[in-house]
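Example record

Each entry pairs one chain with its bound ligand, IPE.
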Amino acid sequence: MLVEVRRLPRHVAIIMDGNGRWAQLRRQPRTEGHRRGSDAVRRVVRAARRLGIETLTLFAFSEQNWDRPPDEVEALMSLLREFLVTERDEILGNAIRLTTVGRIGRLPAMVREVLDPLVEASASHRAMTLCLALSYGGREEIADVARRIAQCAASGSVLPSDVDESYVSKMIPSMEFGEVDLLIRTGGEQRISNFLLWGAAYAELHFSPTLWPDYGEADFFDALAAFQARERRFGRTSAQVRESAPSPSVASHVQS
Ligand code: IPE
Ligand code: IPE
Ligand code: MG
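Structure tokens for the complex follow.
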């Protein structure tokens, strides 16, 4: 698969799914799938950084995932801590900014004590933004924003007539890094599962059958190449898009 370096999506988001099935297929505990899933995170972060993707948002734990069996939740939190500890040097050494979206206040102290300092230490980094969606839900995020807007309107600091799409967009935390261009889901399911509902409104969707622990650079390149073959019309016609498109460049390519 060929990936054209100059037409990369600016913001890629991934629903990293299939860890449990990967483990079950091997008659191993689900937590083993999650452990191997951490290795896939490393591979994809490296590939994205190398290609020059601006923002990579990874769905690591949903607001709904708190309802999983307590043992599994605990294992996921321990693995998250382990990932942050082992990747700290690589993140800082490669000028990656680590940030989060979601209800971070729900995370246990053992995660916060390694997460918060890394978010702070990497805040000025610009090579790539790695955003971890943790205790994240798209509906919850929109509802939180609606509540804040209602409070502003009640106190008179905003007029209801000023609340339009661009106002709301600016209030949505996950919109800090802009709209999602490419949304990938691994593991074969074809659903959004309450991920970036606002920011992915016009994302190109790519569903991969590969279970997340097996996902690698070649799969990621396939998704990027598929993105590059799409025509993003944003409601317009194909002819309009072609008229406004910049002339094709002599692009460099990355081969997977
Ligand atoms: C994704 O893998 C990881 C999280 C949701 C935390 P799953 O654990 O959902 O794996 P499957 O879908 O059961 O295979
Ligand atoms: C979505 O996967 C959440 C993450 C990948 C963190 P799930 O496996 O929880 O999604 P559903 O519940 O099957 O839709
Ligand atoms: Mg799943």
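The domain at 7-138+178-255 is CATH 3.40.1180.10 (Undecaprenyl pyrophosphate synthetase).
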